[in-house]
Amino acid sequence: MLERKFLDNQPFLAIGINIFDFRGINDIFGYHNGDLCLKELAFRLSEFDGVAARLTGGELLWLPEQLPTAAFIEHLKATLETPIDTGDVSINLKVSIGLIHCPKDANNAEEVFKRMNIVLDEALTTRQFILSFSSELGKRYSRRLSIITELRHTLEQALEEFSLNYQPKLDLKKGTVTHVEALIRWTNARLGFVSPEDFIAIAEHAGCIESITSWVINRAIDDAARFREANIDVSVAINLSAKDIMNPALLQNVLALLKAKNLPTDCLSFEITEGDLVKDHDKAIIHLQAFRDEGFEIAIDDFGTGYSSMAYLQNLPVNTLKVDKSFVLNLHKKDGDQKIVKTVISLAHSFGMNVVAEGVENIEALTLLADWGCELAQGYYICKPASADNLITWYNDNLETKWF
Ligand code: C2E
Ligand code: MG
Ligand code: MG
Fold this sequence. Notes:
Layout: H1 2-7, E1 12-19, H2 22-29, H3 31-46, E2 50-54, E3 59-64, H4 70-80, E4 84-85, E5 90-91, E6 95-102, H5 109-126, E7 130-132, H6 135-157, E8 162-171, E9 176-188, E10 192-194, H7 196-206, H8 209-229, E11 235-240, H9 242-246, H10 250-260, E12 268-273, H11 274-279, H12 281-293, E13 297-303, H13 310-314, E14 320-323, H14 335-350, E15 354-358, H15 363-371, E16 376-378, H16 388-397
Parallel strand pairs: 6-7, 9-11, 11-12, 12-13, 13-14, 14-15, 15-16
Antiparallel strand pairs: 1-3, 1-6, 2-3, 4-5, 8-9, 8-16, 9-10
Helix pairs in contact: 2-3, 6-7
């Protein structure tokens, strides 16, 4: 039917409809009711002019007779989401809708199916429930695929493509560096340098973040031992993802590695983003508490960009808030940012927590933070992320530096 549409030589819209968590519906209500839902959706579609077909699982393809308006697509979504009464239960469906404008975005049936996959996938991950395919989206998707393929390859047989950089955190009361943050770098043979901002989130989705974290922890502990040997007494902060926090073996692995190197727990610390804590809050608290019980410091990273409430902070076993750099980069110029940062500092202090400000790029910001009682500062003004060797050199060169 799709091929025939292309032969008409008229622009048309291919609409993909994906039932949200169809597997869950089958699990909860049984396959029989899952099938009923599909039939009911097909029936609702047949009330409009066009042809519908099932793609896979909970996905349908619909080719409307006429080019629909945006308002009609909204109406279609609402119609499909009307609760389905099976006689025993009422099932509330959520659907996402992907739109392919043909022939602009696809020239044949195969391209429609490929792009439908892309657009429905993107709609699901970005939670935009009505989404049109665009060439930009196609490019992003292929980039994501190549990152996944290359990451797997690197993890299996090219670990030397990873390296760790360290960025100092300056203690604003002592005027010395007491912590460094470990930041991963990846230079891939095919893709070149890929920023962690691009590949960490992808690794989380693709299920390979645990292998990355394991590499980071091993390397960070080796380097922590080197720093000690060089008389550099710093705690190395490791960034953890949501999956890492939930990994019950992580803490024991870390402790075993430290013991093998004869290192105390205070030479490592951890950073976790707010968003990662919200997902499975109660379990996260238990796991974090176990880390705190062993004496590890834990910071909430990128603080201010997530959804923390006061009540939530009170129960969190963390000892540091790390103010997101978006509030710090222009601190000297922006009154609003100053208000936010001052508020975070007093909030943290009232909960008995420390504050780290990241993204300190100038002396003005550094001075303001010190005046407001912020404990630690990190940013390009102090030092950019550097290799372990360069960090050791930088540290020794700056032993006498008067930062203010
Ligand atoms: P993050 O943990 O918030 O790290 C701070 C980021 O800010 C780093 O970017 C750092 O290079 C950058 N930065 C530091 N000072 C300044 C400054 O003065 N100005 C500006 N403009 N930027 C500054 P990077 O290294 O690209 O890392 C980005 C993010 O990737 C990190 O954000 C973290 O969320 C993630 N990441 C990095 N390494 C790891 C890792 O080993 N494991 C995990 N799970 N995530 C990592
Ligand atoms: Mg961090
Ligand atoms: Mg951050």
